[in-house]
Amino acid sequence: MCKSNKSYTEFNLTGTIKNVWIKEDKPKLMTLQTPVGLLLIKLSKAARMMGISNLAPGQEVRVKGQKKQDFKTGKIKLKAEQILPAFPPLSTLTPVFYDESKKTASEDLVFSSPLGVQSSNTSNILYSPIQKDCETSEICPSVIPGEPVQQPAVKPAKILICQKSDCRKRGGDAICTLLQQELAQRGLEDQVIIQKTGCLKKCKAGPNLVMLPDKTRYSKVEPEKIPALIEQHF
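That's the (2Fe-2S) ferredoxin domain-containing protein sequence above. Prediction below.
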């Protein structure tokens, strides 16, 4: 369980490298320009294995890692665990063409876009978006003739709050009311469900919350931390 004044969550960002700081011939830090702004990211040992040449300014990359937020100081630290090219090269695509008259496959060039589904001008072959488990140097489309690609169901956002007597005595009811008010002020009351549950363990450290779908747990939640929790997760 996370400490009451800190939380650890995963992040997945796409952006443009602006600067890279090198120490002892190893990249240690970088700034990444993203839709949410310019972010400073520390590079883990695993992330540095990508090499300095692939971390040049102007490079479009996708960064996965861990976000550490300290509610006491208000500081947020990002640490990259994996850095990948933002767009896999198209040169690895295998030419495919579906000949409806002969019902056989012959060579032609069909491009699969990572941002959606495309078909050739003369066929009805549909390609799914790039699969996450594919190698970064290849595009692995799933060919489904005549059928649209089904998108995975999105898990609803929820806040689980313990309703055991110990948690309620420690301010659980007040926290629940504040959560409802904060969500309403942000226009999120129809997008985030507050679900009252049984024991979430650690009732002596209540009030206890669980944020879904990322399953981040909090104990000893204080009223003044509610806005920051809502901002972080939703």
